Every structure is written in C-alpha cells, then in structure tokens.
Amino acid sequence: MNAPSPSPHLQAQGLSWQAAAAHIVRDVSLHVAQGELVGLLGPNGSGKSTLLRMIYRTLQPASGSVRVNGSDVWRTSARDNARAMAVLAQENASEFELRVRDVVLMGRTPHQSPFARDGEEDFRIVAQALQRVDAEVLSERIFSTLSGGEKQRVLMARALAQQAPLLVLDEPTNHLDVRHQFELMNLIRSLGLTALAALHELPLAAHYCDRLYLLKDGALVAQGTPTQVLTPDIIADVYGVRALVRPSPRSGKPLIEFLPDALL
Length: 264
Hints:
By secondary structure, the chain is an alpha/beta fold. 30% of the residues lie in helices and 29% in strands. It has nine helices and twelve strands. A six-stranded mixed sheet has the order 6-7-8-3-9-10, with helices on both faces. Strands 2-1-4-5 form a four-stranded antiparallel sheet, with helices on one face. A two-stranded antiparallel ribbon has the order 11-12. Strand 9 and strand 10 (219-224) form a beta hairpin. The longest helix has 14 residues, at 148-161. It is globular and about 55 Å long.
C-alpha cells in the first residue's frame, strides 16, 4: 500500500447535540495529535457514537466545530473529507449483496474521477488491505453471508483501502474474538496514522491508547493518559463497578481486574 500523507491534526471544540429536550453531548472538546491513538470511553448511552458522528459529519452539531489539519469539516467537500478521514462506523451493512472485494473497493472512491473504472492499482491496494486484516480468503464471499466479526474486519479493510491519514473508529473491536481484537489494535498502532477510537474494552484502551477521553451522560468527565483516567475511583463513578488497577510489570500501563462482586 502506498505510504500515507502526513497525519492531520484533529481538533473538536465545544461540540453539543440534543434530541428534543435531551442533551446527548454537552460541550465536549478533544484533540488528537499527529500519530496518536486516542481512545474515547464511556458506558452505553454516554454519547460516544453521537460525538463521533459530529466529527465525521453525519450529524450537524448544535454548537462547536471540527477541524482536520486546520480545515473545518463542515466547510470542506465530502470528497476532500474522505481523502483526509476514513471512518469505521457502527452500521448495519448486512444488506450489502456484494462480494467482499467490491465492498472494500468502495474505499477507493475518493481517489477516483467520476465514472472511472477500478484500475490495477486499486485492486492491489484492496488485496493488501484484506491481507492486513486477515480477510483475504473472504474476497469472493458475499458480504451479507459473513459473520459479525468477518464483516467488521472487511469494513476495516475498506477504511484502510481509503488511504486516509486519519482514522475515526466507532467500536472497531465489536464482534471480534480475542485474537482478532489484538490483531486489529496492533494493526492500528502499526500504521502510524492519527486515530480516534471509541472503545468498550477498558483493558484494550489501557494497553494501546496514548490518551483517553471519558464520557458520562454526554459530558467529558476525565481525560489524560490511561494511568490518569483508568483509576478505581473513576471506573467506579462512571461505570458503577469495582476494579483493581495496578501497573503492568512489563509495560507500566494499567492492568484492570474486575472483582466478583463488581457491581456497586
């Protein structure tokens, strides 16, 4: 796959969104520096997906702004945004009655002229993207017949085929077994791209992320390194469970153990 262009800087400032009278996201700001993998954490209903949808511009914020490499995403063309930002969203894509290879080829659209045909270079990039997510054997399968984990890997390949220097990922390890969770997170780290990922698995976030943002009820309640954010008190307050947290003897990063009587 061709070397990506330099990673952009992502800056979201004062983002808010509400449905009727309910405030889903309230005045959230975050940034991702070049080359960082930043995790977005929070329990179900905390506003993570809504926040990401504002960042990758499928929801117009009630207030606030999103800039990628200094450019306002809402003032930039969809084509230019797609070249700068690849998205792995939570979406029901089971209706795709396409071969896996053709689904991944969708990621090449921002780089093609209107009505252009897929070329040899596009097919090479798609094959390499499928290989990177351990899904090359699925190339000729019909997407709708795949398991949830297989679909997730194929959609990640589509994002990689887009060759954007910024990745925005909404629960990228969803549906994946333990091995493929680690393989995917290792891949994201190895790419050297700027990445913002909403994650449910606190141990994965602790091990792989450079920094974390933690949401509760649509508001930002903690930010910093995994050591600063994933403390027993903060986990108890936000998730309502007891946890033991200690530094890994190998990496120094937090190791999280949930207790048998974890529920508070």
